[in-house]
Amino acid sequence: MIKKTKRLTLVEQVAIQMEDLIEAGQWEVGSKIPAEPELMEKFDVSRNTLREAIRALVHAGLLETRQGIGTTVKSASTLGLALEKKIQKSDLMETLEVRLALEKEAAKLAAERRTMEDLNIIEECLTKCKEAATNKDSDYFINMDIEFHKSVVRATHNQMFIELYDHITDALQNSVHENMRARRQLEDEYAVHTDLYEAIRVQDGHAAVSCVDAYLRKAKDSLYTMMEGSN
């Protein structure tokens, strides 16, 4: 039996359009959405329809309404929210393994596909990692570490990969902070990044994957030590 296609209500249509604006980055996380009159004109709907659509996105976790502030963008996508909820319920080792598994494939693809512009961005992030390591600034190093790996992933030029990695690393950021603060081995981390950058520079995919394998072993060993110490 063929099921009838469900027609979207006007509220659902507006909510989808707003979600598209969020996912496209036109409405950035943390920013206030435009005022009601502007949105009513943009979507050509009534105030009640607009407010219903906003309520739907608040319920979905994409928007947040606070008294005295208004409605702001809370998350970039429902995928990011789903991943964040899953990660919160998962074992720290599992989440670390997923992140680094993604980085292995990213390193290989980046080595094969990177442009000179990509390489310059990766090198800039690496330089900032070096500065943070030299200054023993673990918080800044952690932030630059994440940016370094994101720049490698962007060099894959695979949009789905980029979005997935962005979501999972944002959700994993707290566990990364926890893990790296426990280690405090910034110079060792920087050495790994240097090797990875060099492998990508000479477009050696095998060497790039080997670098991430080495990073994975160190990260796992450090996490095991941290977990044993907390028992």
Keywords:
231 residues, mainly alpha, Arc Repressor Mutant, subunit A, Four Helix Bundle (Hemerythrin (Met), subunit A), two-stranded antiparallel sheet, 75% helix, 3% strand, elongated
Account of the protein in words:
The protein is mainly alpha-helical and 231 residues long. The protein has 2 domains: 10-76, Winged helix-like DNA-binding domain superfamily/Winged helix DNA-binding domain (Arc Repressor Mutant, subunit A), CATH 1.10.10; 79-230, GntR ligand-binding domain-like (Four Helix Bundle (Hemerythrin (Met), subunit A), Up-down Bundle), CATH 1.20.120.530. It is 75% helix and 3% strand. It is built from 10 helices and 2 strands, in the order H-H-H-E-E-H-H-H-H-H-H-H. It has a two-stranded antiparallel ribbon. A hairpin with a 3-residue loop joins strand 1 (63-66) and strand 2 (70-73). The radius of gyration is 21 Å and the shape is elongated. The relative contact order is 0.11. The mean pLDDT is 82.
Quick overview:
The protein is mainly α and 231 residues long. It has helices at residues 10-23, 36-43, 47-60, 78-89, 92-113, 116-134, 138-154, 159-183, 186-201, 205-230; strands at 63-66, 70-73.
How would a textbook summarize the main sheet? Answer: 2 strands, antiparallel
Residues in β-strands, percent: under 5%
Average pLDDT, to the nearest integer? 82
Oligomer: single chain
Overall form: elongated
How many strands?
A: 2
**What structural category do the secondary elements indicate?**
mainly alpha
Which CATH class of the largest domain applies here? Mainly Alpha
Across the major sheet, the strand order is: 1-2
CATH architecture of the largest domain: Up-down Bundle
Give the SSE string. HHHEEHHHHHHH
Distance between the termini: 58 Å
- The Rg value, from CA coordinates, equals 21 Å
Organism: Peribacillus huizhouensis
Domain HTH gntR-type: 8-76
Protein name: DNA-binding FadR family transcriptional regulator
GO molecular function: DNA binding
